[in-house]
Amino acid sequence: MAINLHSKIGTGITMQQFMETMEKNKEEFYDWYQRFAWETDEERSQIEATVQQGGLQAFLLCTEWCGDVVLNVPVLFRVAEAVTLPVEVLVMEDHLDVMDQFLTMGGRAIPVLIICNEAGDVLGTWGPRPAHVQKIMIQFKQENPDRGAHDYQDKIMVARQEMLTQYGEDTGYQQVIVRELSDLFRQIHS
Length: 190
What we know:
Low-confidence stretches: none
Oligomer: single chain
């Protein structure tokens, strides 16, 4: 079933408002935001051409307390700014109706970038994290389906630590996100 978010247009906040009103993780968020750089101008141009030709817009489901938001949203914001992609930030807690249409493996995982056409028809999504990092969570959930198990919390802490290791210490993961977004926009355009 196709999802249309036309009724949500105008209900979010701007990327700038999100950054200005952050109370948690603001310094780390800005650090990743400042460190972003395009690997190639060709990649930026390709994404920009797709956005402009398709009259695309986006919603971004996120919230400031989430570690994946702190790492990934600065990249999403930088890409959106560079390619002039209009983005409305939907703070998850204020838009659970939208969040519950974009669950990851049955759960609320953020950030989720939702690409729409001008009519609000959803054309594609990205998130909540780069595929190589998400693979760890997929494996964890498959191996630990019982959230009530006595060792669940210990095991998820190990999985989260491994995900942080996969992100790495530098900005390399940001280029992975750019490539994944580039692929997504190519798929939308074709």
